[in-house]
Specification:
alpha+beta, Uridine Diphospho-n-acetylenolpyruvylglucosamine Reductase, domain 2, Uridine Diphospho-n-acetylenolpyruvylglucosamine Reductase, domain 3, Alpha-Beta Plaits, seven-stranded antiparallel beta sheet, five-stranded antiparallel beta sheet, 18 strands, about 20% strand, globular, FAD, Vanillyl_alc_oxidase_C-sub2, flavoprotein, FAD-binding oxidoreductase, FAD-bd_PCMH_sub1
């Protein structure tokens, strides 16, 4: 107990959790990783966190930063040594400022993404990051993993949406970099170094985020398709016809939506007959800066062209905000339905859009040849080449049997990703799930530089050990 006395003094006893009170912080969202910890601490300010980190650095106590604990790669879960302090950032949840002239807002790391979206909207602005976990994930976690979501096609990843950071370094110093500048060429870009580093270099405590004008109108449609090449062709038609107004283009396999409607009977697929049985669907969204009339005219022209060319078999255009939300709710419910069916082998990959169809065909064939009956759960952000290429047990395997196949499945899927010039992590990060895979697929010079950066910024190796960087002791 005496080991924690300093933390009690800094944070107060209510914000230093031990024993059973730590349980919600020790297991990842997927239920794949469970660890133990010396304590869970909940700092209420950047200054409190800096004191905690300085103490941990002096005592050589590992630190595992955690936001909303919605990650999919075990990046915020401690190991089983019981030596680490889990730092929950949920009390750092203030919107510090909103500047509509500069189109920026300064928010703390523990702010829930949905709350940030709402605060921006109340100020007449758009913060465009949108993803399924937005009701519980935090801005700090979004930055730590360089989150993407459904509007990367128009607005970019979290790295593109951030202008500045406040960071507590591994030695307990505070990096003050919240200037809302779009041009600053005064040296190395430290901001982008910390974004995507998953808490292995320091702990992000606040960020200056970009804001955008609210669109005057949005249009949403769900298209029924016979193949992925058709989806790519529709994407090209939409890009040519809509330009930057195309803000979302999601590819969804039929069985994903069937799983959603089975798990959540209140949701309905808006197609009947043959259209409801087609193998693929695409969810499109346009955001227009002029008017609903202008938006609708452009949108209908693009869909009409695709229908006339035969690359779209059927289409449903939302006629109201409620219908648009219902279509997006179908898409956003896929991860929850997938979880309800049991644990799966997940892949968050990116492939050049031009090669996605070939990748899916070859990889599906290879997996079925080796593991007949495994179920493919494929959906994702076709517009930016990011697929969630997942495997479920189907009727041929038990959950345990499927998970035992993970190394063999990874070998096939990631091998093909590499062969098609892709990445084995697009937006979920590396965490502990993929860290020892990096030497197989990442340039050795890049890995060596990453190791040097880690050593320079975290000389005592206390920041989120066992994450991102491969284990060099093996």
């Amino acid at each position: 107990m005496s080991q924690l006395e300093h933390l009690y003094t800094v944070l107060g006893q209510n914000n230093v959790l031990t024993g059973p009170a730590m349980s919600p912080y020790l297991e990842d969202w997927r239920g794949r990783y469970t660890g133990t910890a010396l304590a869970v601490v909940r700092p209420g300010s950047t200054q409190e966190l800096a004191q905690v980190v300085r103490w941990c650095n002096q005592q050589a106590v590992p630190i595992v930063p955690q936001g909303g604990n919605t990650g999919l790669c075990g990046g915020a879960t401690p190991d089983n040594s019981g030596r680490a302090i889990v730092v929950s950032l949920t009390r750092l949840n203030q919107i510090r400022s909103i500047d509509t002239d500069n189109d920026t807002m300064v928010v703390e790391a523990g702010c829930i993404l949905h709350s940030v979206q709402q605060q921006a909207r109340q100020a007449g602005r758009l913060f465009p990051l949108s993803l399924a976990a937005e009701g519980s994930c935090t801005i700090g976690g979004n930055l730590a993993t360089n989150a993407g979501g459904t509007q990367v096609l128009r607005y970019g990843n979290m790295r593109d949406l951030c202008l500045g950071l406040e960071v507590v370094t591994a030695e307990g110093e505070v990096l003050h970099g919240l200037q809302g500048l779009r041009k600053d060429n005064t040296g190395y870009d430290l901001r982008n170094l910390y974004i995507g580093s998953e808490g292995t270099l320091g702990i992000i405590t606040a960020a200056t985020l970009k804001l955008y004008p609210l669109p005057k109108a949005t249009c949403t449609a769900l298209l029924a398709l016979d193949s992925i090449p058709s989806a790519v062709q529709v994407l090209n038609i939409a890009r040519n016809g809509l330009g930057a107004a195309l803000t979302g283009f999601e590819l969804i396999a039929n069985n994903c939506l069937q799983a959603v409607t089975h798990c959540y009977p209140d949701q309905r697929l808006p197609f009947q007959g043959e259209s409801s049985r087609l193998p693929w669907f695409a969810l499109l969204e346009l955001s227009d800066s002029e008017s609903m009339e202008h938006a609708r005219e452009q949108f209908e022209a693009v869909i009409a062209e695709a229908l006339e060319l035969g690359v779209v078999q059927d289409a449903v255009i939302a006629e109201s905000l409620a219908q648009s939300q219902a279509l997006w709710h179908l898409r956003e419910s896929i991860p929850l339905a997938e979880k309800a069916y049991g644990k799966s082998i997940k892949h968050d990959i990116s492939i050049p859009v031009s090669r996605i169809a070939e990748f899916v065909q070859e990889t599906n064939t290879a997996l079925q040849a080796q593991f007949p009956g495994v179920e493919h759960i494929i959906f994702g952000h076709l517009g930016d080449g990011n697929l969630h290429y997942n495997l479920a047990k189907g009727s041929a395997f038990s959950e345990d049997e499927l998970l035992a196949l993970q190394p063999q499945v990874y070998h096939i899927v990631h091998g093909n990703v590499h062969r098609f010039a892709g990445s084995i992590s697009a937006e979920h990060g590396v965490g502990q799930l993929k860290r020892n895979l990096l030497p197989l697929y990442k340039d050795p010079v890049q890995l060596a530089l990453m190791q040097r950066i880690k050593k320079a910024l975290d000389p005592n190796a206390i920041m989120n050990p066992g994450k991102v960087l491969p284990d060099t002791s093996q």
